[in-house]
Amino acid sequence: MHSTVEFGDEVSSRAKGSAVRRAVTAVAVLFVASVLALIASPAQSADGSLPKITGAVPRFGVDAARALGVADLRAITDPAEHGNGVALIDPGLDRIFQLYNLAADPHPHALAIVERDLETFSVKRTKIIPDRHAYMANGSKGAEWVATLDNKNGRLIVAYRPSGGLEGRIRTAAMPGFLTIDLRSYEHVDSSFPNVLADFADTLLPVAGLEYDESTDTVLMLQPAAHGVGSMGNALMLSGWKASDLLKGGELPAVTPRPIRACRRDPLNDSNSHYLSPILIAAGPDKEGNGSMKTWVTVPCYSSTFSTNVVIVRMDRASALDPHATQEKAVVAPAGVTAWAFDTKHGRLYLVNESAETDAWVYEVSTNAFVGIIALSPKGIAESTALSLGVDETSGRLYGRAYSYGLMISAAAQDPVPQADVYPRLSAGGSFRILVDAKRNRILSLPGVADGNSKPGDAYEVIAVPPPLPPPVREDPDSRTAQVDEVPGKTVTQFSGNASAYGLRVLLSRGVSGAVPTNGNDNAGKVAANVNSYCGFTDRELVMARVSKTELSNNSRFARAAAVDLDNATVVDLRQPSRCDAYNSYKDIPLPVVQDYIEHVVTTGALGDVDAAGVPASKTLNDTLSPKTTWDYAAADCATAKGEDEAGPNSTPLVGPTAVECGKDDEIKAYAESRAKPLEIGDVSVAKAKAWTSVKKDKDKGLVSTSSSRIEGIKIGDISIGYIEHSATSYAKGRAKSAKTVFNKPKIGFVAGPNIPSCDTCDLEQVLKNLNVALSGRAEFRKIEPEPKLAAGTPGGYEAGIIKSEKQQASDNSLTGDKSVEIPAIEMVVYNDNPHIGRARQVYQFAGVRADSHYGIQLAGAGTGGLPNIGDVVDGATGTIDPRIGDLPNGGTPLLVRMPESNENVIKRTFRQTGDYANYSLRIIFNNPREALVMATVWLLMFGPYIASRRRRALKAVTTADPEGRLS
After folding, report:
1. Cα–Cα distance for residue pair 336/267, rounded to 1 Å
2. Is 203 or 579 the better-scoring residue by pLDDT?
3. What are the backbone dihedrals phi and psi of residue 408, each rounded to the nearest 5 degrees, phi first?
């Protein structure tokens, strides 16, 4: 969700919608924060400025023409190349460079470079290189020069082809190559490719990506195995030369390209995309090795010739140019990438997807994972090819510009990744790189022309932007404990702990669309969307053996446990099956799979009687089916008289002994067990799952939270796992070095299956590797790491915990709708992403645990170190009512706070951070109102048996479940 930062008549309908969302957000955050909102607007900069257009830089300026000695610069450029005048910025030299391929007298077949001062935009120098044309990527679709800046040595490296096509090659006897231009002396060196890399009849330079690697003073180049040809699986090849090789001139040394084996055809150099492939070169820890910092090369590409999903392939820079190297790690990215931007300094890559909604997916080198999504447009495919991106590598800001939201500014290097502030008044289409002048807080944006943004406009708009705010200051948790011994009557203890666990958790991201394999086919995606036409794309969740809460604190004691737990939307829909009338949605689609399904419906009467028109009657459906489908299960909680769960006829087959113990003042326990034998969900079946938790006060250890889970009889296709067991414990006592955790590696045993080495007592890391090899391309297996600072315990002893980090929570929520905080022993993800649907995934989480403890000791009468409570008087002797706060709503008591001026920015940043978190968490809810209002249970109610019986895409084989144990 965005923060709309313009006011009055400048606020668009999008802005009004954002205001409504902020109002709802305020209900979910502390009331104190809503009061502070009157003081500090989170959308404006510290000086209150708003972005505004302050000037322009022409593409074909009269001053540039005069300096080149021509009357009309546009008239003599190559009309087939729309990128003429498109600029590059060198922030180190404080210069901007515009490139032109000239095609007519007085400089036919030449490349012209115009240098401008970045502060004043005045022309400084020009350069003409005869018989060379700079190579441009993708013509009019966000055209950019195949070039890279060597900021370390002040050089511009431009890929060229002989001007004049084949005739030019014959005339000059030249091959394609590089021009290396010293931006200080303005001298250049011409280096041609060796024949093995440039032997193409069409003389088009075989370059799919280009980047200078400062860490090794090397230029890296991506090229297809064969330009436009499907040989070698259309793999991408990586080559490179030392900068010293480019300075020698002449033919470059012959190199053997390294095939990137996980890559196929490059999506970002495809005819439908805008830009070259980004080659992100950045440092990060080697999480699968010894944890040392390494430099990584990451490249987006296709994982297969049939899928529209993109993968991020990551290679160790030390062996990246070794043609025999095979070490690669692939992370699944969105389907249908159309644009990109990257930030080498902060190690982040932004990929823009083409689907029902347009977002920037944020990849981070240090974690080798996607850590968030930034909304860019509600119009999806229609606008994904008509937006511009740019990055300020100094502050880590991401800039975007499009028609719907206007100018977008996100502090994208922060964690969790915040949504963008939007400025609707500055809306404009176009797909050309946004240039950033960080020194002067301004950007240069080249809008497209009005006819669908297929060509660049005549000038860069210079837009002044608010200066970036410093990152929000995070409170030290240990400030909440005074580091004193507990003394009755002299100290106050504030504690809270929570433990939760589950055996198996299944999430269908995008509802039934997360289960129906579309293999990237857009038409199949439309069919899957049609399944949801009555029920929406609501995420669906099923959990076996779940303890969702075991909480003990100063003023609360609560626990909840369920043998089987469903999401609320599914529970509601099971009471009224007519809401998910898939037959009516499907009936006019002439596809064999649909016809088979309709025949099944008609012959079995699964959806009840139909009227003369063949349309199911909702009342008949509900009266007939709801007694069999209504979820008649009640979880155990502290409010239940017996402390046990209760199951009815529809849920009894899934239930095991489940109960909570809430009678003690200093301890609370919960236990849940599911004994389905087996329960089959898609291609996964389990025989038994259980989870047990406790939170208690201990004289020596303080507050102790414990969580454990175990799952048995697991089948994943033809692969079997005997058991997985997982546990976590946290301690905190409010004194130095008292906070710690115990979190051992999960236990796994009796693993066997095709292409899987059998073991009785198994190593989890090796099992994960074996599973990823055996099921490569169909499913991904991974483990989740807990928040490291909490896992270590805070030094002052206030808190410790085994829980997902905020970054991981934000990432999972954005990418799959997963809002869980537990750490699973193993997570399996099946990808069904589709350009029409967007992200559509199945997530299977095995043996999840979470345990966190908080313990604070304060002197009696002292504050907690946090924000004041409503009605408190802070520093009562000198307290004043800040005039900007005024009376509280509904006649409440004013908040008396003495606020020195020096604290105002801290308050603003605090509220901004709180608002960002709330905005982020509510984005999924409000991104599409239809999702929030129309909810589906098709996957569970109607399509579960159908998909389970027919789908074989994710895994090769499916274990047949005991009919009595199957959820029906």
Report:
1. 8
2. 579
3. -125, 135
Number of helical (H) and strand (E) elements in the chain, helices listed first? 20, 53
- How many CA atoms, within 13 angstroms, populate the side-chain half-sphere of residue 155? 24
Q: How far apart are CA 416 and CA 920, in angstroms?
A: 9
| 869: nearest Cα among 32, 37, 35 | 32
CA torsion sign for 119, 121, 124, 125 is: positive
Contact 235, 225 (CB under 8 A): yes
Confidence of residue 704 (pLDDT cuts 50, 70, 90): very high
Structure-token match 């008649």, residue found = 632
Give dist(CA 40, CA 473) in Å, integer. 16
Amino acid at residue number 698 = D
Q: Are 125 and 186 in contact (CB under 8 A)?
A: yes
The number of beta carbons lying within 10 Å of the beta carbon of residue 701 is 17
- β-strand 667-674 against 679-681: which pairing, if any? unpaired
Q: How far apart are CA 135 and CA 82, in angstroms?
A: 12
Instruction: Please state the pTM of the whole predicted model.
Output: 0.77
Q: Which secondary structure element, helix H or strand E, spans residue 574, and what is its range?
A: helix 568-574
In angstroms, rounded to a whole number, what is the distance separating the alpha carbons of residues 728 and 746? 10
Q: Is the peptide bond before 488 cis (omega within 30 degrees of 0)?
A: no
> Shortest CA distance to 839 belongs to which of 332, 419, 166?
332
Tokens representing 113 are 């470079």
Cβ(926)–Cβ(934) below 8 Å? no
Give whole-number Cα distances, 596 to 484, 587, 600, 859, in Å. Answer: 72, 11, 6, 72
Q: What is the DSSP letter of 652?
A: G
Contact 458, 59 (CB under 8 A): yes
The distance between the two most distant Cα atoms of the chain, rounded to a whole number of Å, is 96
- Sign of CA pseudo-dihedral 662, 667, 668, 674: negative
**Residues 896, 2 contacting (CB under 8 angstroms):** no
CA dist 616 and 624 (Å) reads 12
Q: What angle do CA 221, 222, 225 make, to 5 degrees?
A: 135
Cα–Cα distance list, 863 to 127, 490, 894, 907, 908 (Å): 68, 13, 19, 18, 22
Instruction: Compute the C-alpha angle 944/948/954, nearest 5°.
Output: 120
Strand, coil or helix: 457: coil
Residue ranges of alpha helices (H) inside 760-820 are: 764-774, 788-792, 806-816
How is residue 854 written in tokens?
């908080």
3-state secondary structure of 773: helix
For 567, the token pair is: 């999401």
410: phi then psi, degrees, rounded to nearest 5: -125, 135
CA nearest neighbour of 735 among 484, 480, 554: 484
CA distance 937 to 887: 47
Enter the tokens of residue 436. 């950033």
Closest CA to 339 of 397, 395, 383, 281: 383
Distance CA 713, CA 308 (A): 35
| Each residue's pLDDT tens digit, 297-328 | 999 988 764 456 788 999 999 999 999 998 88
Check whether 170 has a pLDDT greater than 50.
no
- The pLDDT tens digits of the residues spanning 524-550 come to 777 676 665 566 678 889 999 999 999
Record the tokens describing residue 145, joined without a space: 């020069």
Peptide bond into 416 cis (omega under 30): yes
Q: Is 212 exposed, middle or buried (0-12, 13-18, 19+ CB in 10 A)?
A: buried
Residue entry with tokens 């669309």: 513
pLDDT at 80: 74
Element of type H or E holding 753:
strand 747-753
C-alpha–C-alpha distance, residues 122 and 129, integer Å: 22
Instruction: Provide the pairing of β-strand 557-566 with 636-637.
Output: antiparallel
CB atoms within 10 A of CB 265: 19
Phi (first) and psi of residue 760, to 5 degrees: -95, -55
For tokens 């895409």, name the residue: 953
